């Protein structure tokens, strides 16, 4: 995806045309609607009042035409950079817009503010002339003023000669329902975040997809690396108002202020949800399913508990939908990470080794609850099948209100790494010993740790593996240095013997005496034959 945002801000006021906003030097103005008062407090009040009324879905302009705008047809429609919002102003990051299509058919109303968020808003009106599109594109048959599907911030137009061209490179994008994503330090998109998740993997009800229906852009300050966007959220069971303060530095940081109002009961209310893809990795790969060694946007869930424990849970492509919960009270953070950064482990030109990690840092008191991990079976890389989110302990009931703040770190690793060794690989194989008959129902595990105090162990001192399993028994347990001459690279090896096909939960960490040397490895093992 490649489109951005643009708008001109003068030292104290906007230069407004009678029917549009015309940035100096721009080819043509963006058409704007009438002014209307705006403030974030007013947006919160609107969301609270909307929660008392029945949900009304935003109508699609013309579905028969939108249906013809498939992925390929929409890919041929490009927003013209000359029309970008803030293209010629003192702000660094222009804004461009996505066109509606089959997979993003619901219009999102876009507005530009004339102040810092407490002033007047004017709607940005759709015009076909904003887009380059083929002469035979079905989009020409859409009615006037249909609206936009989403938006993106382009890279800085003043970043210097070595930076990517802002016309072809973007760093954040909002598209479809409440999904949004950003690139990390390695200039690559990957996993996504969402405004909210409603009833994911709840057996007796369908998942809901609340959507950002209104977006408001704050004129950027000269030279600032931060942009601010407000958003209204609406869905069958929830309404909300969001403020996003997004900073483009080496990584991308987003400070989010969210006000949420339930118009119905929710079985699983997912706060700060993250959505990713995991197909296979070195943990487990069916024979010859694909030519690449690994395919995933993220390879594990990391958690930092209130008590200070660091936890690493490798992801699974399970035989059936699995939902796991990791209880805590006021967690310090959690995230879906891509720890494996070795190109040779993927061998793919789409560069999975560069996909960003995404860390959620709660700001303020989140209270008791649990990090929920939902893993869904997939047979291809085109499906996002992993969700991680915070679920409050209290039931989510009609009339409830939630006000919370958090920070998203789109980066190449967790922003607050543990002082202990990190888990860097999980490998499975047949249990037993070479040259001997391999016993049935026995699986061998090899878990690798790297760094931290492992690098400073005296010669001849080996760590001890501390193991636990929800069922089954361990054998052949030992820890050894990986023979690759990398200081602090150790692996724990053990066999697990288990009957039946129910999942097995496991824990492992390394210690020396009373000193904990590694983060805690958690794993959910699915014995063969445990499909749906």
Automatic annotation (TrEMBL):
Secretion signal, residue range per the UniProt entry: 1-26
Signal as UniProt keyword: yes
Keywords: Periplasm, Signal
Pathway(s) it belongs to: Glycan metabolism; osmoregulated periplasmic glucan (OPG) biosynthesis
Predominant location: periplasm
Subcellular localization: Periplasm
Keyword Signal included in the entry's annotation: yes
All residue ranges annotated as the Glucan biosynthesis periplasmic MdoG C-terminal domain in the record: 38-525
One family name in Pfam for this protein: MdoG
InterPro entries from the UniProt entry: Gal_mutarotase_sf_dom, GH-type_carb-bd, Glucan_biosyn_MdoG/MdoD, Glucan_biosyn_MdoG_C, Ig-like_fold, Ig_E-set, TAT_signal
Similarity comment: Belongs to the OpgD/OpgG family.
Protein name: Glucan biosynthesis protein D
């Amino acid at each position: 995806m490649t489109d951005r945002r643009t708008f001109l801000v003068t030292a104290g006021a906007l230069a407004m045309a009678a029917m549009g906003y015309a940035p100096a030097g721009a080819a043509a103005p963006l058409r704007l609607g009438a002014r209307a008062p705006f403030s974030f407090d007013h947006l919160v009040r609107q969301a609270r009042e909307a929660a008392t009324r029945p949900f009304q879905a935003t109508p699609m302009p013309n579905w028969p035409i939108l249906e013809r705008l498939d992925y390929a047809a929409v890919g041929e429609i490009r927003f013209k950079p000359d029309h970008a919002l803030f293209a010629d102003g003192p702000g660094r990051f222009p804004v461009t817009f996505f066109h509606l299509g089959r997979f993003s058919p619901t219009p999102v109303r876009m507005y530009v503010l004339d102040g810092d968020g407490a002033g007047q808003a004017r709607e940005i009106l759709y015009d076909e002339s904003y887009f380059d599109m083929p002469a035979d594109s079905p989009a020409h048959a859409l009615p006037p003023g249909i609206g936009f599907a989403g938006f993106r911030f382009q890279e800085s137009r003043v970043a210097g000669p070595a930076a990517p061209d802002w016309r072809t490179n973007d760093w954040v994008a909002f598209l479809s329902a409440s999904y949004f994503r950003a690139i990390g330090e390695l200039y690559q998109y990957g996993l996504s975040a969402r405004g909210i998740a409603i009833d994911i993997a709840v057996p007796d009800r369908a998942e809901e997809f609340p959507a950002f229906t209104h977006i408001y852009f704050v004129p950027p300050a000269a030279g600032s690396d931060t942009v601010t966007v407000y958003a209204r959220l609406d869905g069958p069971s929830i309404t909300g108002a969001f403020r996003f303060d997004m900073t483009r530095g080496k990584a991308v940081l987003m400070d989010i202020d969210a006000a949420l109002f339930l118009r119905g009961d929710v079985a699983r209310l997912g706060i700060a949800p993250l959505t990713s893809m995991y197909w296979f990795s070195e943990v487990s790969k069916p024979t010859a399913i694909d030519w690449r060694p690994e395919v995933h946007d993220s390879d594990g869930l990391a958690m930092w508990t209130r008590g200070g424990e660091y936890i690493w849970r490798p992801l699974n492509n399970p035989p059936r939908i699995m939902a796991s919960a990791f209880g805590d009270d006021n967690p310090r953070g959690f995230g879906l990470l891509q720890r494996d950064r070795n190109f040779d482990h993927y061998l793919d030109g789409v560069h999975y080794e560069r996909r960003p990690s995404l860390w959620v840092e709660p700001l303020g008191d989140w209270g008791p609850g649990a990090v929920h991990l939902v893993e869904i079976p997939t047979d291809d890389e085109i499906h996002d099948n992993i969700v991680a989110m915070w679920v409050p302990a209290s039931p989510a009931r009609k009339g409830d209100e939630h006000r919370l703040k958090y920070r998203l770190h789109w980066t190449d690793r967790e922003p607050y790494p543990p002082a202990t060794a990190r888990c860097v690989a999980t490998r499975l194989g047949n249990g037993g010993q070479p040259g001997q008959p391999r016993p049935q129902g026995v699986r061998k595990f090899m878990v690798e740790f790297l760094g931290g105090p492992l690098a400073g162990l005296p010669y001849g001192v080996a760590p001890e593996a501390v193991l636990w399993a929800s069922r089954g028994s361990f054998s052949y347990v030992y820890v050894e240095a990986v023979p690759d001459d990398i200081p602090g690279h150790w692996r724990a090896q053990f066999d697990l013997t288990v009957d039946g096909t129910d999942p097995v939960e496991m824990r492992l960490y390394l210690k020396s005496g009373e000193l904990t040397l590694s983060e805690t490895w958690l794993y959910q093992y699915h014995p063969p034959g445990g499909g749906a």
